[in-house]
Amino acid sequence: MPAAALVIAAVVIVAILILAVWSSARRQRTQGLERSEKLREQFGPEYDRTLAETGDAHSAENELTARQERVSQFEIRHLGADEGQRFNDEWLVVQASFVDDPSTAVHDADALVGRVMVARGYPVSDFEQRSADMSVDHSPAIAHYRAAHEIALRDAQGQADTEELRQAVISSHVLFNDLVEAPQEAPQEATVTPETKVLVAAQ
Fold first, then answer.
1. Do residues 49 and 106 share a domain?
2. What is the spatial distance between Cα 27 and Cα 44, in angstroms, rounded to a whole number?
3. Within a domain: residue 131?
4. Which range marks the domain in which residue 167 is found?
5. Is residue 167 within a helix (H) or strand (E), and if so which, with residue range?
6. How confident is the model at residue 13 (pLDDT cuts 50, 70, 90)?
7. N or C: which end of the chain has fewer CB within 10 A?
């Protein structure tokens, strides 16, 4: 084969290889963007929170994908109508107890949310793991759940006031409603003393 033909063939081969590499890189970028978009859509603010914690998008998305894979192994189920009603009745008891003992109501609200989680099929674990698990299917409610937990921690140190405790119960109710698959309503409140606002209904 003449030298010129060899050069042309080599150039064509190199061009094909470059095109293949470029096409592969473009496809990977497109897939990466699609993955990022799907994760942002699913996790919402939780995506940004995880990004801030990990420091880069790749690590954040690996973390969120790992959560998806973990939760996919659970046998999550819907509550029966009787179960849902029973949990709602328990919530009303917790809500009513706030007037006399706000701190206990906050604790009981969190415990009730935990029982609903177990009933739905989520495993018992520490708070951070539960939050991570919940973020997969209940991401809009997770910020509320974390806020309630932070207030409960401050209350344990004697640093939370009644209004904060009220907000903690309302925040717990957001995830509770999501888990029992009840329609969300705007929380209402009433004043029973000049000094103290209490939770009347966050149903």
1. no
2. 25
3. yes
4. 81-201
5. helix 162-180
6. confident
7. N
| b (16+ CB within 10 A) / e for 33-72 | eeebeebbeebeebbebbbeeeeeeeebbebbeebeeebe
Q: Which residue has the tokens 């606002």?
A: 197
What's the one-letter identity of residue 64? L
pLDDT range class, residue 133, cuts 50, 70, 90: very high
The amino acid present at 51, given as its one-letter code, is L
Q: At what angle do helices 102-120 and 127-137 cross, to 10 degrees?
A: 60
Best CA proximity match to 134, nearest among 165, 113, 164? 113
Q: How far is 162 from 155, CA to CA, in rounded Å?
A: 10
* Among candidate residues 22, 50, 71, the one where a domain is terminated: 71
In the block, tokens 């999501």 appear at 178
The whole-angstrom separation of Cα 62 and Cα 195 is 49
Residue 31 CA to residue 68 CA, distance in Å, equals 18
Q: Would the pTM of this model clear 0.70, i.e. be above it? A: yes
- The domain tally of the chain equals 2
